[in-house]
Amino acid sequence: MRINTRFTVAVHMMALIAFLQHTGTPASSELLAKSVGTNPVVIRQMMSVLKKAGLIETRNGAPGIELTQAQEEITLLAVYKAVQKDMDAPLFDFHPNPNPACFVGGNIAEAMEKPLYDAQKAMEQSLARYSLKDITDFIGEKIHF
Predict the structure, then answer these.
(1) Which of 27, 28, 62, 118 is most enclosed, with most CB atoms within 10 A?
(2) Angle at Cα 78 formed by Cα 72 and Cα 81, nearest 5°?
């Protein structure tokens, strides 16, 4: 089982938007799709979610997608929260049918509640310490931008 890729796709998109915005090159869903390696429809769906969260803006009939804030103001936690769907809400989900007649099955969910909650909070606190600028700075150093 893997955690979904919406978060990493969103960060990928926003990093590319940041680089393109810096160079004055208009970002398009087609260009983002080529970089991410997916269909432009998937990118447009993600753009809709990021726009609704106030992280990007687009203009009807005009090319270009832009960040709404400075890169250092956009935390990875903000991106994560923007793209997570309700069904993904907790990072960890519990298997649905433990046997309540079993001494472990009847108690495992309650026993795991706090450790899983603590793990979720630790991940979110970690994401809050990083910004989109941290990502673009790392990439910029790799490509000597």
Answers:
(1) 27
(2) 165
